[in-house]
Please model this.
Amino acid sequence: MSTPLLLDVRDLHVTYPSGGGVPAVRGVSFQLERGETLGVAGESGCGKSTLAGALLRLLPPGTEVSGEVLLDGENVLTMREDRLRAVRWTELAVVFQGALHTLNPVKRVGWQIEEAITTHERGIPRSELRGRVAELLETVGIPGRRAVDYPHQLSGGQRQRVLIALALACSPHLLIADEPTTALDVMVQAQVLRLLEDLQRDLGLAVVFITHDLSTLAAVCRRLLVMYAGRVVEDGPSDEVFGSPKHPYTAALAAAFPIIGDARFRMAPSGLPGDPPDPRHLPSGCTFHPRCSVARPECASRAVELWPAGEGRRAACVQVLDEVPT
Amino acid sequence: MSPRYVSGKVLGSLGTLAFVIVFNFFLFRVVEGNPVATLFRGRNLTDAQRAAMRHQFGLDGSKLDQFWHYLVQLAHLNLGRSYETNATVLSEIGAAAWPTIWLVGISTLLSTVIGVAIGIVAAWRRGSVRDHALTSFTMTTYAMPDFWLGMLLLIVFSVLLGWFPIGGISDPTSNTTGIALLADQAYHMVLPCLTLTVAYLGEYAIVMRSSLLDTMREDYLTLARAKGLRDVLVRRRHAVPNALLPVVTLIAINFGFVLSGAIAVESIFSWPGLGHATYAAIRAPDLPMLQGLFLVFSASVIFFNLLADLAYAYLDPRVRTS
Amino acid sequence: MTALAGGKTPSARRITWIRRRRAFAGAWRDYRASTPGLIGLGVLVVIVIGSLAAPLLANHDNLDPSKTLTTPLWASPSQLSPLGTDNLGRPIWDQLVYGSRVSLLVGLAATVIAMVIGSVVGVVAGFYDGWPSAVLMRVTEWFLVIPFLPLAIVLASILGPNVRNVIIVIGITSWPGTARVIRAQVLTVKQRLYVERSRALGAADRHLMLRHIVPNVSPLILANTTLTVPIAILSETTLSFLGLGDPLRASWGRMLDEAFSNGAIGKNAWWYYLPPGIGIVLVVLAFTLVGHALEEVLDPRLRERRS
Ligand SMILES: Nc1ncnc2c1ncn2[C@@H]1O[C@H](COP(=O)(O)OP(=O)(O)O)[C@@H](O)[C@H]1O
Ligand SMILES: [Mg+2]
Model:
């Protein structure tokens, strides 16, 4: 171990303060090496965005966060304010969910990119700054002259590209893309995905892809992490996880398709009845058992953890214990 | 801002003005029934004098004739003559307008600046002791009738402490001019101005606070923090300017309304402005004066509404560039 | 949820009913979490009970100056408890208690008028497309720019000063803001309905109106009502202060008018001009607190954020 891992998350817990405490993330651990791609999947509400926000301490005041987030060996959660500000965007940048609302509607998009650069680098001449912004926009396939546009003058796909350009502004080592394609047309989704893949390869970026669409992740990422009710329920190489899921929840996700159109519709996985549980009232035992098609009586009481489930794979389901030779 | 947007807004305002002009006529001549009776009440006049006055005030002929007469006179900026003073309504209003414009202008400036500042401080530290204290203060001033607040200030600062005059715009016993007169007028304006400032800042503070709280939930503020910006800059560059947009509109619209809203406060302090003139016209009653004042008040609201629309369009690129 | 809401069986209706009741219980639970809202509600209950129980708390005869010939003029509270007397020897306390009735009555009744006009105009203008809606909105906008106070003054002086007319005047000058808010809400609900299914299934207007529009705008109307009442009360106060109130019935605004014009300020008769003002501030503040708390609980946008 000469260089530390790029990202090492250990036993992360996040509890929102509203309504007596909402445990949105409950003990998540994972590692990421330089240049690696990791996919995080799960229905909406399972804590994916919360996880992303915790990595840079961006959650609302009053939110309780415990565990460790080691970014290049440094713990983000205990960092001093000024160091934290320096790390933000230069080490880790985020393409936030919902491109419609993430850009400031009354500022030119070029200005918003410039702001990221000048926050971390003082005294760049105007002309050079302009040039860099134009270059960043060209990188994501937007003509540089669109820098003077306001967000509403761009299409949804273009705005998503601007957000990606913005994330690249300070050459971070790690990019977190939170549902980067959810609100887009199918055609545009494919283009944006390809762009992210290309950038990842060309710039040697490490990328964490977050989405509820397991099939997308399987194509783009090397490793996959499936979340349910604030916990990781399965992880492993993506093609294996997608191809032969060990956890019934993953299996349901793999067979699912999202309803395109109205964003308020939760995705409705085929063969997966009901809604994900409210974090404040989690079921006992395995949190998935009320919706599980292969649940056993013991699932309602028996605590589950991530058990080894084959080469480089783990799953939090009692089924995997059956397979282990005794 | 496209010329089409501007001309559309201007035309809309002109349409509203036309409505107000017609409304004004019917309000005073038709609903009221018989303005002549009011006009002649308590006066000893010959028939010839009555006929002459009827003609002078445009009260002879059919309603249609009267309406036509009203429009023609209006086109010549002739709002008639006051029943009370027999001076033209226009000159009376012109004389009363300046004191009101100064009073309302300065107090609006103060109440917006102070109110917005209070709103920002309260929202940024939502739930803190400071927020609770400021919000309680602004809610209380918002709940006070403005003239009652004026009475309290009058009692404390004029009657008990004797620091300020109890009313009027200048000292009637001295005949100063120039700078000295101006200073005297400013001195007389302190209490009415303070009253209006305190009475209106609550609304701006409450609106600014809730607008900023809405803005603070926006995702682009999280992005700004994620970029590594200091809190101060997140607030100054992103949160406050965006939260101010709707408040600027409110201020412009309100200015039009405050011109007429100062009626009770002006009468408390005998401030010789439009509000005081309205108060006198109600008591008389002096219908041409009331009608003229009503027209001026409505026109100013329409004007400032237009200004608010244009200011918003200018400040918000979402409107400006589409 | 899709499986339940689509059916037309009586049990589906009962489920809707149960769900509404649960929503109401939830709203009350959220409301209770707001301390200012509870304080406001408490103050309101006390004042409303006080004004309803006026005959028990005060003596109506004392409002008539011909019946107070034996009491001293301008008596301070130490001379005549609890609140002293005015320039005609009438006890302030009795005026204050009976005055609360007029202030509350005008505030509530005028608000009812404003809400009925505002809701009907808002719902109709939002629900129907085409020219009726356009005309209604134009008219609403016209009324929005007519300065309230001068119009109220003109109307009050034309109609004559009595409680009924004050109610009418305030009612018909206070509806345009409500109409605008309600219309916006109806438009959002309609939008949502198109996205969902009712329209596509050919639901009748009546069904849409009763099942979807009304339940969705009524919380908003409620919140708007509680925020309009304090404004109406302040308007009554101002009109009365300008001498356009009912000269025969004490209201808090008229008490302030009389205190001011009879020289209570010069005499520093604080027991005359303080109590009615404090009463107004308390009532207005209480309604505003309740209104804001309700808005937090019921505002659909806030509700969506929480889920
Ligand atoms: N600010 C917040 N306050 C309280 N609860 C929240 C907040 N943000 C998210 N939650 C809750 O936390 C859970 C996880 O949310 P989120 O991380 O956004 O999920 P995902 O991104 O997977 O859709 C959800 O149940 C959500 O309701
Ligand atoms: Mg999310």
Observations:
- Residues 259 and 265 of chain A are 7 Å apart (CA to CA).
- The pocket of magnesium ion (ligand 2) is lined by residues A 48-49, 97, 178-179 (CB under 6 Å).
- Chain A has two domains: 5-91+172-283, 102-171.
- Chain A has a mean pLDDT of 87.
